């Protein structure tokens, strides 16, 4: 006999026998159990043989479900105009079955187009956050999912996701900046470990259905459904951390009722603002996170500090603007004109990101405010030109762990600056610069490095005994700007290079992408370690290999009797191999013995 049991809304692993469902007996081979849950982790713990994930409904599917729940099947009995408005209401539910079912049921009592129109407007402008009984059931259901998270850090990650604009891709790295700056996972010291924990939290939120996957293939973003986002705002309105998120705000006047409502907020995010000017100062004593982004006006012209373009009409932030925001921990600015003098009022700032901003003065102007940024852990300047990163930054940012300088032009870093920022764990300088590699020897905590290196600045490093430290993540480009953001975590590209390659030997244990172009002394990949036989782990994680214009190359990897482990594949994960214009090549390697079963190969230009 075949029996199917339906068990709905499971929140944790259960023992089937305790509810009378026998398992593990040959006498019950025809029995099946179908369970529903909001958590993928429950499916894994229950050893489900097949998992079916319910996606967001298409517009047609959503309308079919909505008209069934709202009792709209009999068009002839309805007043003219209701169906058109009802379809708009269904679209506002954005395909979320929970919202469609509950909103549909709650609106089935409405019989006039006016009532339906009012409901639509309330759904659009989120006035239901304050006084909408119609949405209480939706929020009660979502509250269960939120409470089931249990861990406060994960709940905080969920709330931070609601800071971003409606329907937007949420940049995970930007979210990480906010999380670390706010103090999430404060019991963990390492920035990289905190980043990992936040990514784990986001994965858990996706598995619980509170976040959605982005359409981007590089997994750099997540998404939040509009109804779930409204629920998150509803939570903050009732808790101690009140959020305010506005998109396209046109005015911010110090004496306005809106400002009065802002004063109790701990988090404010103003996206795509059209504000013409800001007050000299605003008293937001509780504010911990501020995101302010002016609406982009086409191509951003980045100004050199100390020079103000009279025709520039970007939003200017007064130097006294933050004077009464002493609790601020995270400051993210984009497309604004900004005076660095304003930072003197932010002693608790932990994370600062300036993107496409115009700086009125240079960082060196802050020299009179020693240790005023001694809690700053993350400094990110993206498409924001500075003349120089001065040595005085050491006194200003004594706790700096992550430094990112990304943009256009040349980045001049004062000699001995990096070596004195002893807490640095992450360095991202993908533009042309004057970094001296010997300074890295003094930074024992560095685990992540994105850097453009030029041999003109580092001749002595490659001629002597410098060796890169072991790194967990890196994108290192020699004699080349970092010109791509790969989905891989560990990448090395060397161009126009005539020195020994041994400086890179510690990177070979976990390298994923290797590009060698016009490397004069390269005879085989063994030159990277300068030892025979090659050490254990040598290029075992390599996925892509490109070698071009290396005229002395004789073999990619020499197969000989010195190999200490004849059973080991030298490139077990290699997926793509590209070799061109290497005139002296005699042998690649034994494809049958040295590589995985599937490999894409290009050999050309000989």
UniProtKB/TrEMBL annotation:
Signal peptide: none annotated. Residues 6-70 form the NB-ARC domain. Keywords: ATP-binding, Leucine-rich repeat, Nucleotide-binding, Plant defense, Repeat. One of its GO terms (biological process) is defense response. Pfam families: NB-ARC. One of its GO terms (molecular function) is ADP binding. InterPro entries: Apaf_helical, LRR_dom_sf, NB-ARC, P-loop_NTPase, Plant_NBS-LRR, WH-like_DNA-bd_sf. Coiled coil: none annotated. Belongs to the disease resistance NB-LRR family. This is Disease resistance protein. It comes from Corchorus capsularis.
């Amino acid at each position: 006999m075949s029996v199917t049991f339906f068990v709905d809304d499971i929140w944790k692993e259960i023992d089937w026998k305790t509810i009378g469902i026998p398992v593990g007996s040959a006498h019950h081979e025809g029995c099946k159990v179908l369970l529903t849950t909001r958590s993928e982790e429950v499916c894994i713990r229950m050893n489900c043989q097949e998992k079916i994930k319910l996606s967001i409904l298409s517009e047609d599917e959503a309308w079919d479900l909505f008209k069934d729940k709202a009792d709209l099947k009999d068009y002839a009995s309805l007043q003219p105009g209701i169906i058109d408005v009802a379809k708009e209401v269904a679209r506002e539910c954005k395909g979320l079955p929970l919202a469609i079912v509950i909103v549909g049921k709650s609106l089935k009592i409405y019989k006039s187009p006016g009532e339906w129109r009012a409901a639509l407007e309330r759904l659009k402008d989120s006035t239901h956050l304050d006084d909408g009984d119609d949405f209480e059931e939706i929020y009660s259901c979502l509250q269960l999912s939120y409470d089931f998270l249990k861990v406060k850090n994960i709940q905080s990650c969920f709330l931070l996701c609601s800071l971003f604009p409606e329907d937007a891709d949420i940049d995970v790295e930007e979210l990480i900046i906010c999380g670390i700056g706010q103090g999430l996972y404060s019991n963990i010291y390492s920035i990289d470990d905190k980043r990992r924990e936040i990514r784990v939290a986001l994965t858990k939120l996706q598995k619980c259905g509170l976040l959605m996957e982005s359409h981007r293939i590089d997994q750099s973003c997540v998404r939040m459904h509009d109804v779930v986002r409204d629920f998150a705002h509803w939570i903050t309105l009732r808790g101690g951390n009140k959020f305010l998120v506005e998109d396209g705000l046109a005015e911010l006047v110090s004496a306005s009722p809106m400002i009065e409502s802002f004063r109790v907020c701990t988090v404010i995010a103003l996206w795509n603002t059209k504000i013409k000017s800001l007050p000299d100062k605003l008293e937001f004593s509780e504010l911990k996170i501020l995101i302010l982004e002016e609406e982009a006006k086409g191509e951003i012209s980045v100004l050199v500090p100390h020079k103000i373009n009279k025709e520039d009409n970007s939003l200017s932030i007064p130097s006294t603007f933050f004077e009464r925001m002493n609790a601020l921990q995270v400051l993210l600015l984009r497309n604004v004109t900004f005076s660095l003098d304003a930072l003197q009022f932010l002693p608790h700032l932990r994370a600062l990101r300036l993107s496409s901003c115009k700086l009125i003065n240079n960082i060196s102007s802050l020299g009179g405010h020693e240790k005023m940024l001694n809690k700053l852990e993350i400094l990110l300047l993206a498409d924001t030109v500075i003349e120089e990163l001065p040595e005085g930054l050491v006194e200003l940012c004594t706790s700096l762990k992550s430094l990112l300088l990304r943009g256009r032009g040349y980045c001049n870093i004062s000699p001995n600056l990096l070596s004195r920022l002893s807490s640095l764990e992450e360095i991202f300088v993908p533009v042309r610069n004057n970094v001296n590699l010997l300074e890295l020897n003094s930074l024992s905590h560095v685990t992540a490095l994105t850097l453009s290196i030029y041999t003109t600045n580092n001749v002595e490093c490659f001629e002597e005994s410098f060796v890169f430290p072991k790194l967990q993540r890196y994108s290192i480009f020699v004699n080349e700007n970092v010109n791509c953001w790969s989905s891989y975590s560990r990448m090395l590209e060397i161009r126009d290079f005539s020195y020994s390659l041994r400086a890179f030997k510690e990177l070979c244990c976990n390298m994923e992408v290797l590009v060698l172009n016009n490397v004069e002394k390269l005879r085989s990949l063994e030159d990277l370690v300068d030892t025979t036989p090659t050490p254990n782990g040598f290029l075992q994680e390599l996925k892509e290999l490109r070698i071009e214009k290396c005229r002395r190359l004789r073999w990619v990897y020499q197969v000989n009797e010195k190999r200490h482990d004849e059973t080991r594949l030298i490139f077990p994960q290699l997926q793509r191999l590209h070799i061109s214009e290497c005139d002296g090549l005699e042998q690649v390697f034994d494809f049958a013995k040295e590589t995985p079963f599937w490999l894409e190969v290009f050999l050309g230009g000989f």
